[in-house]
Design brief:
InterPro entries: P-loop_NTPase, Restrct_endonuc_type1_HsdR_N, SWI2_SNF2. The protein starts with 9 loop residues before the first helix and ends in an 8-residue tail after the last strand. A hairpin with a 2-residue loop joins strand 5 (136-143) and strand 6 (146-153). The chain contains 13 helices and 16 strands. By secondary structure, the protein is of the alpha/beta class. It folds into two domains: 10-251, no CATH class; 284-396, P-loop containing nucleotide triphosphate hydrolases (Rossmann fold, 3-Layer(aba) Sandwich). It has a seven-stranded mixed sheet, with helices on both faces. It has a three-stranded parallel sheet with strand order 14-16-15, with helices on both faces. It has a two-stranded antiparallel ribbon with strand order 2-3. It is globular.
């Protein structure tokens, strides 16, 4: 039966679904510590339930003074490294590295499943996040006490749309205007969503009016927007599909990323070109997530030798999609045996070859995983050396010595 959102607000639908159907805890705003920009009690609960020996060795929660010291350093690590990196790699305190998240387990590892079940997914409505302002964010999602996403929700029935939510982020959620609002600061929260009952937009770094929001829609017949939903809310896939525990875990483990690329920029004062490191906070758009997941599923079920044609357009993020796919393809297993020995990314243009290479390298987690074949000989060497991912252009293939 279609949901009458003129009577039941979008916020209630979303939070209730995550709590009742996705296994989330429902938090309250006072759980969030404004000084450290996280949920102290859930961080403590997660650590105490999984790493008691490390707690004992560091005495991190032995007294209010020690606890404050721990969270002060922890908060600094979030600002420096970003929440995604801390979740993946943990946090070093004194002599111990605290795991801050347990990844999705394989079917062959029941112990890993027990650890994964210790992860605390939490949704909170109306989060009062600032020391200086009385503003609240409609919805806040955390994992083991760490901020993952915020959402501003709007409803056509009240005369507001996703554009109003974007405007609210740009004008009322400017991190420079409120330095005490840690959840708005760069790297402190993975993504920010503007949502109404028809459309979703996302932003990974709030910059006031310069905040760049991208569509997170499913698309309709190759175009923009979202298809009609059986429950009446076109954006229900966000909480029914994307924010499921396994789905969100998959995004955090395999897609969310902070990348660094060197780029030549013109110095405004000298007029000379200089190399500058550009930092980008990455979160997949829906069509990218859907594309990669479908291809992985098809490969897992049908093996190699299949052919697929992926429709894309300029600015659709195809380089990221190719990168995510390449890294995950080399990790596919049939039991304990890799399905693929090597993934070869072949382009038809030198500039695209370089772009893909730089993109894959910026996502690189293992130094010996990727190779770039800039000649027939290096292509041969990479194949013989068993490199997992090889980037090259089609012109190299007519002749391999």
């Amino acid at each position: 039966m279609p949901t009458d959102i003129s009577e039941k607000e979008l916020e209630t639908i979303l939070v209730s679904y995550l709590r009742d159907h996705q296994g989330y805890e429902e938090g309250v705003s006072s759980d969030y510590n404004k000084e450290f920009g996280l949920d102290m009690e859930r961080v403590k609960r997660f650590i105490l339930s999984t790493q008691k020996e490390k707690v004992k060795n560091t005495a991190c929660f032995a007294s209010p003074t020690e606890e404050r010291k721990f969270f002060s350093r922890f908060s600094a690590a979030l600002s420096k490294r970003g929440v995604t990196d801390v979740l993946r790699k943990g946090f070093k305190y004194i002599s111990e590295i605290f795991d801050m998240y347990y990844p999705t387990p394989s079917a062959l590892n029941p112990t890993a499943q027990q650890y994964y079940d210790k992860n605390i997914f939490c949704v909170t409505r109306q989060l009062y996040y600032s020391k200086e302002k009385t503003d609240s964010i409609d919805v806040y999602i955390s994992l083991n006490g760490l901020p993952i996403m915020t959402m501003e929700l709007k409803n056509h029935y009240t005369g507001q749309t996703v554009e109003n939510a974007i405007k609210q982020y740009k004008e009322d959620r400017d991190p420079k205007a409120d330095p005490t609002a840690l959840i708005l600061q760069k790297r402190r929260c993975a993504v920010h969503f503007a949502v109404d009952d028809d459309d979703i937009m996302m932003c990974t770094e709030l910059k006031g009016n310069a905040s760049w929001f991208l569509p997170f829609n499913k698309g309709v017949n190759g175009g923009a927007g979202n298809p009609v939903s059986p429950n009446g809310v076109r954006t229900a896939y966000l909480w029914e599909e994307v924010l499921g525990k396994r789905s969100l875990s998959d995004i955090l483990e395999n897609y969310a990323q902070i990348t660094f690329k060197e780029k030549e920029v013109k110095n405004k004062k000298t007029g000379k070109k200089e190399k500058k490191t550009i930092e980008s906070i990455i979160w997949p758009r829906y069509h990218q997530l859907d594309c990669v997941r479908q291809l992985l599923k098809a490969t897992r079920e049908g093996g190699v030798g299949q052919k697929f044609l992926i429709q894309h357009s300029a600015g659709s993020g195809k380089s990221n999609s190719i990168t995510w796919l390449a890294y995950q393809l080399v990790g596919l297993l049939d039991g304990t045996t890799p399905i693929l020995d090597t993934v070869i990314v072949v382009t038809d243009r030198v500039n695209l070859d370089t772009q893909i290479r730089d993109n894959i390298n910026s996502f690189k987690r293992l130094s010996n995983l990727v190779d770039w074949a800039d000649s027939s000989q290096t292509l041969k060497d990479a194949l013989q050396d068993g490199k997992k991912i090889i980037i090259t252009i089609v012109h190299k293939f007519p002749y391999i010595p």
